[in-house]
Sequence to fold (271 residues):
Amino acid sequence: MANDGVFSEALSLYEELKIESELASPNFEKCTNLISRLKILLFQFESFGEGNFDTPNLEQELLLTRQVLEIATLISVKQRDLSLFSCNMNQLKAFYQEFNKHIPETHRSQREHTIVGLELLSLLAGNRRSAFHTEVESLAPELFQNIYVRFPLDLERALMEGNYRKVSSMRADAPSELYLHFFDLVLDSAREEIARCITSSYQTLPAAEAKRLLFLETDGALQSMAEIHHWHLLEGGVLQINQRAAQTQEIPSLSIISQNIEYAKNLERII
Fold:
């Protein structure tokens, strides 16, 4: 059994982490350091490090460990670090599944549904659709109507339909500000897909229209996108999109024509 000194030290560090993590602009470096120190201590608990559920301190150890891992997971969301989020989530999941039976109903986590929804959102942000559907299949049926879980499910449906206008508008419906961190990564991926369609479908495009299609609010944001995709702004507010196509007189193959028609259809659906 972890001695009282280890538990007391862990509890003290947890309180410090909790205060820092709840700040409007937490110090991520400080949080990371505290989390690392805490995990070293947590692995000295019999319940977590050794898997011994006969310890008299079982409930206290499990609750403290779960709370630390939840904060670690939420900090990784604020950092928009998908890899770190996945690592912390893999450790935390046990506390929402097999370890739950050792925790009284009155002490069940108030963050669980929020974090479960964030995991689904992280998989969409990482373009891991297969893993997303695997996680969805493992959910209890009653969770499908939970507001935190429903949001990434509706978002995934809009992405599958190619309805990027709806995807963009869903930002205002996010059930928590925490969701915006991963949602913006999803929206960035959607913009990249639209940009690829534009590149393959147009030689020139009015800058205002490109900004509308890409759901960009500023000229600076459009300029950044243009630089990434090697678009050039011409006089009159027109973007030269497919410069190579404009310079060649060769007739494109049927496969390229078919592909461009499909891209054009996708753009029409977006509009």
In short: Residues 178-201 form the longest helix (24 residues).
